[in-house]
């Protein structure tokens, strides 16, 4: 297997190249800095629009600042200011990693926007734009990175290559979020995309995992405004609590971690189990009748706690310790 030989315990990503989307601010910035600290050459992608809803003019500023920060610390980085929701620009993004650093090894899909509204008030544009940036954005880069890895594997006579995808979902999908139907749906879609990609690419030596992070960023500054930063030490809501897991998932050590969902924040990582079957009913004849379903399902749900749904609200209570 064509694994890089340069990796050391301190710099496990030495010799690898990574793309991080939406890395001009917030979580993506912390993740790009961490990947560079661990030795990776990084393409820092961000279209740099000023609004967290994706509004305003694009700006090269945020991506270039983070790329410069990495170079100032002795790392290798270039900025890319494309929009990941645009298929062509996503292709250029993946291509730029290959052109700049000779190959792509790690793809961190992180770019995202918010347009919150209750489902009865949400406009078509609020729905479409959030699905487009998160779900289509994740697909676009994944498509071109996957094609790159498949081609590399073919060129190596079918040998496994090195590839890591880290996608970004949210507790808004896991626990449900009444005011974010577009966002919760996009983040659920990203989980489906991750398990599909994990199955499809395993034979090429590529893993795909998904994180549900939590951090104080531009996106969540109002949600977490009530959670004070401590006077000393790291803020439990600092994006720097999320970045180490992304570094680990990108590294050779995580080869056996594939198709997994991990919740991460504040010095804690929780591995979420796949959905499990809670109950099963069989029809008496070949198929069910209405009456039969009524007789089986109505008492079943009558006994279950009110308000319990498929959403895993309990994840919201996870803390370190
Ligand atoms: N902050 C949290 O608590 C939290 C919780 C769960 C999930 N997330 C997810 O983490 C990711 C990062 O969020 P954040 O909190 O750091 O937000 P942020 O707003 O601080 O950063 C997101 C960055 O993505 C960039 N971006 C947006 N759309 C883009 C596009 N189409 N192309 C290129 N760049 C684009 C923005 O310019 C911005 O710099 C998002 O996917 C978000 O949904 C965050």
Summarize the structure.
The protein is built from eight helices and eight strands, in the order βαβαβαβαβααβαββα.
Category from helices, strands and their pairing: alpha/beta
Sheet with the most strands: spatial strand order: 3-2-1-4-5-6-7-8
Name of the CATH class: Alpha Beta
Mean pLDDT level: 96
Continuous helix count: 8
Radius of gyration (CA) equals 21 Å
For the secondary structure, the number of strands is 8
> Which cofactor or ligand species appear?
nicotinamide-adenine-dinucleotide
Broad shape: globular
Element order: H for helix, E for strand = EHEHEHEHEHHEHEEH
Detail the poorly predicted runs.
1-5
Q: Number of folding domains?
A: 1
Q: State the helicity in percent bands.
A: 25-40%
Largest sheet descriptor: 8 strands, mixed
CATH superfamily: NAD(P)-binding Rossmann-like Domain
CATH topology: Rossmann fold
Estimated share of beta-strand residues: 5-15%
CATH architecture: 3-Layer(aba) Sandwich
CA(first)-CA(last) distance? 39 Å
SSE blueprint and pairings:
Layout: E1 17-20, H1 26-37, E2 41-45, H2 61-72, E3 77-80, H3 87-101, E4 106-108, H4 124-155, E5 163-168, H5 171-174, H6 181-201, E6 206-213, H7 243-250, E7 261-265, E8 268-271, H8 290-302
Parallel strand pairs: 1-2, 1-4, 2-3, 4-5, 5-6, 6-7
Antiparallel strand pairs: 7-8
The structure holds nicotinamide-adenine-dinucleotide.
